[in-house]
Amino acid sequence: MKIFLRPLSEISVPAPRPDERYVIDVFGEQVTFDGLKRLLGAADYSKAGERHAGLAAGNEREREAARCILAGLTLQHLYDRPLTTEAGQIDEVMRVNYDIDHEVFAEIAGLTLGAMKDRLLRAKGVEIRRLGRGLTGVMAAALCKLCDVHELVLIASRIASPTRARTRLGAPGTLSSRLQPNHPTDDPQSVTLLVYWGLSIGAGDALLGINPSIDTVENVCALLHHLDRLRRKTGAPTQICVLSHIKTQLVCLERGAPVEILFQSLAGTERTLLGEFDVSVELLDRAYCTMAEHGALAGEAEQFMYFETGQGSEVSYKTHEGIDMTTTEALCYGLCRRWDPFMVNNVTGFIGPETHKGDFEMIVSNLQDHFMGKLLGLPMGMAPCYTLHSEISIEGQQIATQLLTAAGANYYMDVCLGIDRMLAYFDTSGHDDQTLREVHGKLPGAELLEWALGLDIFARDEDGAIVRGPRWGDVRRFCEDDAELAALVAKTPATHGFATAGPRPADEVSRRMRLHQAAAREAVASELRADQLQAITPLRVVHTGASTRDEHLGAPGLGACLSAESLAGLGPEAEVVQILISDGLSAEAVHHNLPDLLPILLDGLAARQVPVGVPLLARYGRVKLAEPIAERLGAMVVIHLLGERPGGDALASRSLSAYLLYRIEQGEPRQAAVAFSGNPGLRYEYTVISNIYEGGLPPLEAGAVIVEKVLQILELHAAGNRLESLVT
What we know:
By secondary structure, this protein is α/β, with parallel strands linked by helices. The protein is 43% helix and 13% strand. A 6-stranded mixed beta sheet has the order 17-19-18-20-21-22, sandwiched between helices. The chain has a 4-stranded parallel beta sheet with strand order 7-6-5-12, with helices on one face. Helix 18 (359-375) links the parallel strand 10 and strand 11 (380-382). The mean pLDDT is 96.
């Protein structure tokens, strides 16, 4: 395969300009916007993330005024004004976005955005795709802000973006699915059941892809080999992927694991990409070239990269550089196309109410994302999703999928019954995928369809049309006997039943699933009961910047900082390790796990003679609250025990995570950390131990696991991906 990745130094970007003022007269009243970033933010629909960041329009009149100004600007105007960082620099993501087809751009540069939108509405798909090659992400974002729902659907529906790995994805008339068999502890029997279940209902033609609970080379290699065995055993024509960090996957590839599709989450600003996701353009370039030469499908696959995106990560991390969520998402797509991906998955709605509070915000953002991605030439899969601490509902998700299918989405997720058993969020299921196929006249990918016809999962009716076959939904057909199926079911949480009614789960299954979800959603409203926790061991109570639950859920930055009073009450201590306990998104998770976990943790550290301070307790805490604690107390490691967002059944609402923060020391540890990450501003590294509860990693066992991991951090002066690279 011939590879050409233009060096960043050869991508020309106009010099930054000072912000200018945009003014319009609206019925005798002047409306003013200072700078292009402010104009782009005000032109968008009002969303929680934009409101918290101060980027949303104040009212409908202001929003339409911004759109009127935007419609009158030329594409050249946007080209000449690259959006800069808060320090006034052009970052790597923005630079990559200027790697466009300059011949196409020269043809359209003089068009206003309004005229360009009209041209797209009149154009056929091939022409829209050609024009998209001349656009930057900022231009795509500006165009989508001028489109209504019909226009977002209409234009996107005309664009086809097929790709090929082992099988073809995105062919006209098809709707595929990525089968996601996640489990709280990566149990292979549960993974097996979820793969069988998905395949039995015609899912998985895009990918068998699992998000690992444990992101170590050893575990990711094991999962890759397990998925490969399942693919070979069933004969399903598809490809496999374990969605660990790209650095972990590359080590697995070196060790001979079947890395067929290489995954990474991306972001629309360099500060987020490097500082939060620990990747750079240079790393992704190396990974792409490595896969082209040594990947498991090298020489067979035309595309082999898989990227996941979604509006809001930059704003949530406060690394958005003053740019609105829609525009940073479009910049992410401009970055994605550098590596010609096999698939891109959009997970807008995954973060929570701090970015998208309710159904409308999630639905319209998904339509925007799909439009922008396809306009920029990407093979867009969509995952309109939600968490139980948001106000998004399953009905809103279903409305989004109907609209996105009309708009031509390449694929959706198959998260069994819509319940992610590890990530504790809610996505589309294989039942949803098949329902959408039947509503919109779509079929699975050709290769998997032929395989499924041979197994009677699908069949042809008397008119030759493809219909569900007699073995559709028959999970048992992949098992040796009933005993094997029973053993697999016993290992799988939230297995509410296999019964179906047409392409849908049977009503008894739906009722059970929805009842569990309702019970789990209540856990978000639970409160810490400090007196009960003090009975386990003495605790120091501190307070975050959030004084109410609404503030905590809507503005995550408040839960990541200490109140002024608490900050003043803490000072340097001699202890190397500090323990911080926070409710996060489920106080019940704290109450159910701490009685068993905390004594084991304290005793284990004491037995290893690790100095530990009196544990701290904080209501309304977020992950990064550990950072000011580490700085104020001078700790090398902070063990942050945090209640996670409730999952898909009542038991999963008790899930706790341990975020182990390592405060990088000066000297050799800092030099090594910077060299490994490429981030000169890096101050902390995190190791995460997740899904601590009765249905995942039991709290007694988790205490011992945390102790051993803390000892590794202290010995090797590293955490996160760097630690794993040192211990493998």
